């Protein structure tokens, strides 16, 4: 098969595909590769329905079906509340008591390009750069799995007073979070 014949059949072929499939005078022609695997799913015709008016199928997770009821049938309920939780945390990262706790934990650390700050971890008492520390809520924010959890989550996310926050290095914060998660698993029925 010549280059022109191959491009007539597969106009969007890459150069590698063309070279692999055109024949030279001394080699026999190769057959075109056949599509393999499962057939593709029908494209979504309109929001909430598949082509043909069928409802979107829920995705299987661990042997059970998870309904995708949010964001036009693309998000599960858990994914929706995860997004809300993330947006709230991001929106309140400049909460004044949180910023005051950061300011209390910092010291001037002169660097080659002017003054920089170092932050003291309140657990291991070592000093770290800003990107190596995190601000911890002394009282965990808790869960946010539905609208009934929203008021309590917001109350815990935005406490008043710098004593409600502490500055920890990433390692200490992860260890504290793991300890809290392990304690919840032990207490859970």
Entry keywords:
189 residues, alpha+beta, three-stranded antiparallel beta sheet, 6 helices, 19% strand, extended
Please characterize this protein's 3D structure.
- It contains six helices and nine strands, in the order H-H-E-E-E-E-H-H-E-E-E-E-H-E-H.
- It is α+β, with helices and mostly antiparallel strands and 189 residues long.
- It has a three-stranded antiparallel sheet with strand order 5-6-7. It has a two-stranded antiparallel ribbon with strand order 1-2. It has a two-stranded antiparallel sheet with strand order 3-4.
- Strand 5 (106-111) and strand 6 (114-120) form a beta hairpin.
- It is extended.
- The mean pLDDT is 81.
What is the element layout, followed by pairings?
Blueprint: H1 3-9, H2 15-21, E1 44-46, E2 49-50, E3 59-61, E4 64-66, H3 77-91, H4 96-104, E5 106-111, E6 114-120, E7 127-128, E8 133-137, H5 150-157, E9 165-169, H6 170-187
Antiparallel strand pairs: 1-2, 3-4, 5-6, 6-7, 8-9
Mean pLDDT: 81
Q: How much helix, percentage-wise, in residues?
A: 25-40%
Q: How widely separated are the two ends?
A: 69 Å
Task: Give the overall silhouette.
Answer: extended
- Oligomeric organization of the protein chains: single chain
The count of DSSP E runs of length 2 or more, i.e. the number of strands, is 9
Unreliable runs:
none
The biggest beta sheet reads: 3 strands, antiparallel
Indicate the structural class. Answer: alpha+beta
Question: Going across the major beta sheet, what is the strand order?
Answer: 5-6-7
H-E string: HHEEEEHHEEEEHEH
The count of helical stretches stands at 6
Note the beta-strand portion. Answer: 15-25%
- What Rg, in angstroms, do the CA atoms define? 28 Å
């Amino acid at each position: 098969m010549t280059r022109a014949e191959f491009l007539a059949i597969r106009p969007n072929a890459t150069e590698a595909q063309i070279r692999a499939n055109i024949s030279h005078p001394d080699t026999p022609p190769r057959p075109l590769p056949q599509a393999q695997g499962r057939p593709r799913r029908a494209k979504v015709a309109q929001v909430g329905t598949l082509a043909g008016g069928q409802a979107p199928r829920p995705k299987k997770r661990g042997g059970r079906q998870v309904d995708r009821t949010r964001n036009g049938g693309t998000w599960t309920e858990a994914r929706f509340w995860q997004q809300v939780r993330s947006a709230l945390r991001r929106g309140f990262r400049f909460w004044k008591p949180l910023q005051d706790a950061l300011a209390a934990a910092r010291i001037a650390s002169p660097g080659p390009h002017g003054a920089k700050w170092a932050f003291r971890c309140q657990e291991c008492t070592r000093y770290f750069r800003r990107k190596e520390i995190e601000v911890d809520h002394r009282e965990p924010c808790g869960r946010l799995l539905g609208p009934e959890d929203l008021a309590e989550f917001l109350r815990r996310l935005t406490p008043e007073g710098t004593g409600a926050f502490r500055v920890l290095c990433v390692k200490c914060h992860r260890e504290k979070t793991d300890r809290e998660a392990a304690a919840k698993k032990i207490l859970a029925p």
